[in-house]
Structures
1.
Amino acid sequence: MTLAELAPQLTEIARQCYARGWAPGTSSNFSATVSRDPLRLAITASGIDKATLTPAEIVEIDGLGRVMTGSGRPSAESRLHLAIARARGAGAVLHTHSIWSTIISEVAEGGVAIEGYEMLKGLDGVATHEHREWLPVFENTQDWAGAAPEVEGFLTEHPDTHGFLIRRHGLYTWGRDLAEARRHLEVFEFLFEVIGRKRG
Amino acid sequence: MTLAELAPQLTEIARQCYARGWAPGTSSNFSATVSRDPLRLAITASGIDKATLTPAEIVEIDGLGRVMTGSGRPSAESRLHLAIARARGAGAVLHTHSIWSTIISEVAEGGVAIEGYEMLKGLDGVATHEHREWLPVFENTQDWAGAAPEVEGFLTEHPDTHGFLIRRHGLYTWGRDLAEARRHLEVFEFLFEVIGRKRG
Amino acid sequence: MTLAELAPQLTEIARQCYARGWAPGTSSNFSATVSRDPLRLAITASGIDKATLTPAEIVEIDGLGRVMTGSGRPSAESRLHLAIARARGAGAVLHTHSIWSTIISEVAEGGVAIEGYEMLKGLDGVATHEHREWLPVFENTQDWAGAAPEVEGFLTEHPDTHGFLIRRHGLYTWGRDLAEARRHLEVFEFLFEVIGRKRG
Amino acid sequence: MTLAELAPQLTEIARQCYARGWAPGTSSNFSATVSRDPLRLAITASGIDKATLTPAEIVEIDGLGRVMTGSGRPSAESRLHLAIARARGAGAVLHTHSIWSTIISEVAEGGVAIEGYEMLKGLDGVATHEHREWLPVFENTQDWAGAAPEVEGFLTEHPDTHGFLIRRHGLYTWGRDLAEARRHLEVFEFLFEVIGRKRG
């Protein structure tokens, strides 16, 4: 799909996430893959309020994070979107800042294990509630150009991962397309809230 | 009522449940009885996102769970819908995945007793807040064809039951029609949240 | 105001309360005073789903709770609405079933004291946050014809009360008109949630 | 911008805050700077329900809090809006009463330190999550004419402050314009909820 086709879809997803409190202020960013060879992503520009996002605020970047089409600066975290697109062949990447993902990212040590819930079957390839999902927690940084290769390496080595957290920051999840990425987002947000409230 | 009449009503209920966070991702399924002899249910097809469900994604199944009308695969859990329709003469069955029903299903042992709340009077046949409602918690399984008869047996032996939980999975409730089933759903969700927050 | 004028306003308030989760299932009832001499109330009929309430489901009752205009049975709790209208000269009475009022009604002993919050100034006649508001908790009953006089006596003796709770049941609050009653409702719900979460 | 231009914008912000539960009853007030020399603010009149606020209920006041344009009495807290406009050159000031800001204002001692969260980067001038934000908690009073100079002095001496709390009352935050003030509000509400839930 082209930037022109993906931009309204990303805008709609961003609006839904904002409405649910998962993208407050100018936080969060959302991308979808325009082409794989060469790699091109449609991605929300940096510093945009998700409550009022318009398709014109979605830019197209290349594999080095340079803007190919559209005006606006991509977020430093576009490096993570590119890493996920490369390592996992993702068609869409959603990065959100919810209350519960922030809390879980803070209290977890190296990662979060989630096991035994029916809701896990909403994750691609998971056929039973007996599945054990493990999300790593990466430390936050302001240098994603430097840190993204570590994340990309991890995802390449762990192809069964569906998401990860960044400490006191938020969630990254993805899917082969926007619908699957959105389903993964809902699954993880649900499970974080269950775990967070049980602990509370 | 026919499939054509029930499908839009089931779609509307599903949409409301999704909006309230009770049917995230592709979870949850909803049915209504088309005929009793032979038994026919209108039921949401498996793996459909409830945020975007359309009437065309409701199928009609027979008493063995085979699709009679419509395209789409019914969920393995249609066995439980059929069991409830048979054991309790239900006109509608709602199965949801909420945060609080998941938490309650996890912390309860064999079942949950709820007693002394005015809200209990929203359940069919309950005339006083002094009523004691008991919901069994069944263990989760991926083999509902095998496990549904046990549930059907329980419901036949306990005709005063208004709902049950599946461990780390969610709630089943029902009613003589969709309006009553929805009322029961609201009553149970309210009571689970009260109990869950009190415990928290 | 006449029944015809008040019914749409009560319907709108009920719809708002339902949307906020304060009137699940067929719970809650709402009234406004049509005339004082003789006493006449417009009140929601019993057993009506507040999600789909229409003005035709509001009836007019006299001071003994008998239906004067409209079809439908008034709730047994209309006795409490009449008691409040008489003891406090209320122009509107709102009775809701929220999560937090239910929890507070259960953990409080004879009543709830709320003190020191700026939000208290939203109550009629309260000019400083240093105010101490006291809400009695009455035990629940299914015989309100018998129990309403005790409530009426209490309210007559304590003219500074703005609301009361019924154990494991919900809140009653009122005002000189629907706007003031709604403001009192929002004030109490806010304060119950603050107190409930602090305790949690 | 003129009062006529700002009033609809303030009305819209108030409506959003009401919908999110941050401005219940007649609580909260919102202002934007019309001119700096002489100082003029557009501000919500006192005692108005934010659910039904209209642009006609926004008045223009001068630097002494006197109404220049419009009918309606400004809140006693307009003194704080003026103090913030003077000390920080704010173009907009938002004062809200949320559940979590009330709880945090009650449990904090002299102030609240928030550190290490990515969301802090939504505050003007904050470039890293390693930032430590400190919000003072001022004691509540009914004499803001007397107390506002202390607040103004504090803000002048601490130009890096983005907001403050009033004990058991609520939050004040601001920005160079309404969009920035709203972003700051969302950032603080998010962080209060994270901190409050973690503590819970």
2.
Amino acid sequence: MSSPSAPQDSYPYQNEPTWSKSEKAIARAVFDAALKRELQDVMQETKQTANQIKEPADVWELEHYLTERRKEINHKYDYRYSQLTHVFGKLLYEGRISEEDLNGLRDDKLKSIRSLAKFLAEDTAA
Amino acid sequence: MSSPSAPQDSYPYQNEPTWSKSEKAIARAVFDAALKRELQDVMQETKQTANQIKEPADVWELEHYLTERRKEINHKYDYRYSQLTHVFGKLLYEGRISEEDLNGLRDDKLKSIRSLAKFLAEDTAA
């Protein structure tokens, strides 16, 4: 019996890595710390940008910046186990987390994470 | 012959006041000065609000505030001669312009402007 309300990560799709209890604890901590840092960055950038406002257009530019950052952050920080290697791959590529942060994850996940980070780096360089 | 691209204010609707050249000059100056003051207010409020940001929620509150202010200002400052008595009525009600600013407008317009300002004040008090 399957329930439509069952969370996705309880019934991993074929080929998706399963996450052990200790891996989940690591993932949660890394995810939360990265999100916290990114939000701190937005707070800092908002204060700096606001302080430099000189004309009305600067205000609407700040509004646009905030809207884009909110959408980007909402999209990027997707804590579903089916998405986590992508999330960490992107954060690794952006330099928002380091490989050391991921110590304790199994090789199958580290491989996926590094692979996406490398792909994104090459994609940008191209 | 009417053209779909003819500006509305060149062909005033029935019962709409016409604006003399000197009235148009007064209207433009009052309108521009009020808009400039309101945009200065937004700039000031944005800087103050940004300086008081303490947590991420404050950032998204600022974004929301800016979006609402932008929509409100775009809607309020409608420089069509068919709308100007409404625009000035609202600005008078909000205390953003004074009756003295409107010196030089004909009585038909002053009456409409005061009437709307009074209506809005009573509407709010109700």
3.
Amino acid sequence: MIIDCHGHYTTEPDALTDYRKSQLAGVDNDPNFVPSEADFNCSDDEMRERLEPAQIKLQRERGSDVTIFSPRAVGMGHHLGTAKTSEYWATICNNMVRRACDLYPENFVPVCQLPQYPGVEPKKCVPELKRCVNKMGFIGLNLNPDPSGAMWTDPPITDKWWYPIYETMVELDVPAMLHVSGSCNPNFHHTGSHYLCGDTTVFMQLLMSDLFKEFPTLKFIIPHGGGAVPYHWGRFRGLAQDMGRPTLDELLLNNVYFDTCVYHQAGIDCLLEVIPTKNILFASEMVGAVRGVDPETGFNYDDTKRYIDAADISGEQKAQIFSENAFSVFSRLEQAMSGSN
Amino acid sequence: MIIDCHGHYTTEPDALTDYRKSQLAGVDNDPNFVPSEADFNCSDDEMRERLEPAQIKLQRERGSDVTIFSPRAVGMGHHLGTAKTSEYWATICNNMVRRACDLYPENFVPVCQLPQYPGVEPKKCVPELKRCVNKMGFIGLNLNPDPSGAMWTDPPITDKWWYPIYETMVELDVPAMLHVSGSCNPNFHHTGSHYLCGDTTVFMQLLMSDLFKEFPTLKFIIPHGGGAVPYHWGRFRGLAQDMGRPTLDELLLNNVYFDTCVYHQAGIDCLLEVIPTKNILFASEMVGAVRGVDPETGFNYDDTKRYIDAADISGEQKAQIFSENAFSVFSRLEQAMSGSN
């Protein structure tokens, strides 16, 4: 069993992106514009047409079974439009992910985005999170630690500002992937810089905080192999030590997990060597940030299963990474896969 | 011969930090305050007292010969005070580095900071760069790609905004380490997040630009092992490919170098595996970001020579990393070491 814990709906029908464009154009013309969900329509066939030759085909070819599937990350664009458009947009994107999962119940299990907006209290997102989990069988969420789009104007994720989300996550027993979205700062390319910086930054915020004393069962996945963190594991161990903090094991590794979206063998080897196996979840972010074929290997850069297969770890470790850890982090996964949500 | 290309004057006398405090307090009270260099005095003995038991002792113990030595990175604080205080502060810090090098001519070779200030054109820094190199024998500079202190309000380093610095670097044939300073954004811890994010971000900026077509002899060192870059080398190779850019080899590796400030063996092994040996310069950032002893090894985290010694590369490769590459990147190093500057 191979579960990919990090897939986005990057093959959405044109109708969805067109709706978003008209929504943002509406706000440009009139800041009080209220978008209508009724303006959006697309057929199941349109969805199948895009999913079949991409995610579905690649799952089959690469030998993964289930993808934990969420709206396109850069598409969340929490810094765009208004708080109101963000609400409508999150609802529609989450509904579309639910539909994709209904069309391919063997292939996808849903994770939601939230209607975040810079400067707006995260507690406003609680109803959508509850709707997704309680009414639509979602098993987790993507939480954007920087809804301002690389301007980083909201408080760190360890601030009480965010607690209503965490209280709801604990209540529902769902984990969050801490995943930023697009960048409106010309210094940061989104997938080449902002994503990796976001991953690194949230880890350091957690290192300095006692958040997991407040919320011992809270679970976060840091995507893209943890940004710079495993490569600099010694630096982070040393910083924690210099600051008189507990060891990273004790402080973070009951609550923080890393995915395997690292697109070459040496990087994966570094990840597997320094991070305990129990904290690593298989992922490829397919179809996502990097789409080409690596001329050095002849396979897609993001075909991360090959790197795990080739890694010098035991079969039992591989089983943990490929699926067992996903079942323990996503407590609702098993039920969702049995179709009884 | 072992040359550490990344050392900061982190053991400065109290007189220097006191001067800075009074300078910033002066500006707080009166934005037009002009600081006086005359307010700053310290004796050679005060300098020796702090350097001897730290950098000098550690060089001897760890077996490195020469440190390329620059002002404290977080101390640059380009976002603090005013453009005028930044000028005075850069001058004094650079003079102090020169004095430290004069006190220990066998141990240190100087690199300068610039009087950068957010929103102020970098060309204003050219006179100080020329003074340091032409009149005081400095062999390189630290260039802060984000003088706003983690607010990232200035243009990317590939923007023409920065060209006067690059023209001067080419004219003087000196390389720059692209090193950010402190953070005034509570999201970013300076050494645990802002530094690594800065390193990653400048690399992606360079990947998207043709800067080195404009300046074929320009040389940049990306510190802290390149932030997240070597760990995500496949991602960056794939992004360049997806964007229709040349290979990273062709695009960047005649001009971009990485240091070895990565504080554990697995990270160094990853760096050495993916980055060509010719692009790696030995460094420890001693005494710097991480000061403790790693309980897993019994040695200091930042005793990076041990990781290179233990790495599975040839003796010739080690010689390149430990010193040969430094001589080729810092064209003025040999002359500076012979004392004939």
